[in-house]
Amino acid sequence: MKPFDNEARARESVIRAALGMAGAGLVVNKAGNVSARCEEGGRTAFLITPSGMDYESLRPADLSLIYWDDGTKQWVHSGPHKPSSEWLMHAEIYRAHPGWGGVVHTHSPRATVLACRQTPIPAFHYMVAASGGEDIPCAKYALFGTPELARNVLEALKERRCCLIAHHGVVAAGSDVSQALSLAVEVENLASMYIELLALGPAEVLTKDQMREVLEKFSAYEDNSRRLSRRESAQTRSDGMPLWKYADGRNISCTEKVKVLDENFREIGRLMADALDDAVLIGCPSEQYRWALENLAAGLKSRYPDQNPEENSRGGS
Ligand SMILES: [Zn+2]
């Protein structure tokens, strides 16, 4: 089978994150699992750690590739081993959140203590906003590896990037798998602090307004780091580059022409990021470069109207 976009890189990143997860003490023995998205032409696909293998002995070729088959309307597995028992949970997370490129599932001890009490982590510390909201919720219990568990986790992740899973563990997601791992580490850290805090008495929590302020500041940081992190933005398709679409919304399947187009736009992105860095360095106010970008976008819109998709698809390689 032909490799998917970013497959080789995704395999490496899963191995790195799996070792990182074990090294950070987030899992004991063979518990937990890690996955990263790779895809082609809008088809959801990802690589996940196999079931029951030691992380230290894991090689890129050991990972399971799972993708959605539009013909049979089923998830298809390929690889030398059985995928992790929670593969369906990862699959449904990727399907529901197209912008997410990595998922980490752990049984990290302190967070799991709270999960076993079905205790969400409230806004006792501003870093709880790393979840994307004002708390870290706890998904309802269901038997591991079942569609019901996948549904419960999806429900908890509706407006969050991480959650506890009752009587089980933690799930964290991110635009790539290293971000998902950082978030899983943060959840464990927060859980640890929260447990100690509870031992001193009832915990004081930040107000909704205070947390909204934190979330706004986090989102400004994220925009900035996305812009400045050029190496990362050149790596994966899921962290900024659009899937190319016809004017009627259909995905353009991945052809050589799309790949070249993709590369050219990445290069433009890098040049624009350089220009913005220079603007920041010499002290231009942000309104000024926003004005420049808006003018550029308005110019494109008037000069290049959308074409008929049939015309576009003709002659595709
Ligand atoms: Zn588990």
From TrEMBL:
Leader sequence segment: none
Database matches in Pfam families: Aldolase_II
Keyword match ATP-binding: no
Keyword presence, Metal-binding: yes
Source domain of life: Bacteria
Protein name: Class II aldolase/adducin family protein
Coiled coil: none
Species name: Mesosutterella porci
Keyword list, A-Z: Lyase, Metal-binding
Annotated Class II aldolase/adducin N-terminal domain residues: 12-195
